[in-house]
Automatic annotation (TrEMBL):
<keyword id="KW-0472">Membrane</keyword>
<protein>
    <submittedName>
        <fullName>NDR1/HIN1-like protein 3</fullName>
    </submittedName>
</protein>
<keyword id="KW-0812">Transmembrane</keyword>
<feature type="transmembrane region" description="Helical">
    <location>
        <begin position="12"/>
        <end position="40"/>
    </location>
</feature>
<keyword id="KW-1133">Transmembrane helix</keyword>
<dbReference type="InterPro" id="IPR044839">
    <property type="entry name" value="NDR1-like"/>
</dbReference>
<dbReference type="Pfam" id="PF03168">
    <property type="entry name" value="LEA_2"/>
</dbReference>
<dbReference type="InterPro" id="IPR004864">
    <property type="entry name" value="LEA_2"/>
</dbReference>
<dbReference type="GO" id="GO:0009506">
    <property type="term" value="C:plasmodesma"/>
</dbReference>
<dbReference type="GO" id="GO:0005886">
    <property type="term" value="C:plasma membrane"/>
</dbReference>
<dbReference type="GO" id="GO:0098542">
    <property type="term" value="P:defense response to other organism"/>
</dbReference>
<feature type="domain" description="Late embryogenesis abundant protein LEA-2 subgroup">
    <location>
        <begin position="74"/>
        <end position="120"/>
    </location>
</feature>
Amino acid sequence: MGRCCCCNCLFSCVFACICQVLCAIIIILGVIILALWLIFRPNKVYFHIADASLTKFDFSPTTNTLDYDLSLSVDIRNSNKRIGVYFDKIEAKTTYHRQKFANTNLESFYQDPKNTTILNPVLKGQSSVYLGDSEKSDYNDEKKSGMYRIFTVLYMRIRLKSGWITSGKIKLAAGCELKVPMKSNGGSSGTFERTNCVIIPWARH
């Protein structure tokens, strides 16, 4: 009976010690991640759409379908001096009048400090979109001008690296309001202006 009590007591002590160690590790990791986040800050990574063009953007009001061919050139600049960034996942999602019509996954990569990476996604296909009378009127006006208002969001899961320390995964989203020209027969209906993307709340739909 006495031995059982001793064994139970020993087991309880060992279990309590393990729990304390695990809690300490979790707290330390949390402090490290918080410290990295405070040093890093999302505004120290800059996102730009350097170029964008359409070769097709045809909406059919009878079938509510949109045929599109959109090319983007995305610049990602890590301005941190000592912190690298793992971009484990990047998804580009595009909408027209708040109607999603395309998305694609970009390649994952590691970005060194003080470095710029250029990505060139192409979004091509056909999607169902539902435009009201006002949106249809806007589409017709934009078709005449050859410049289309398209909103692109980059949804990312990143990790921060400083020396031998790597953080857990962090969600990040950057929104880009674009005016995209139509290209045809080697010409363009306008000139795309390099666009700054802003950090926005992560809100997947």
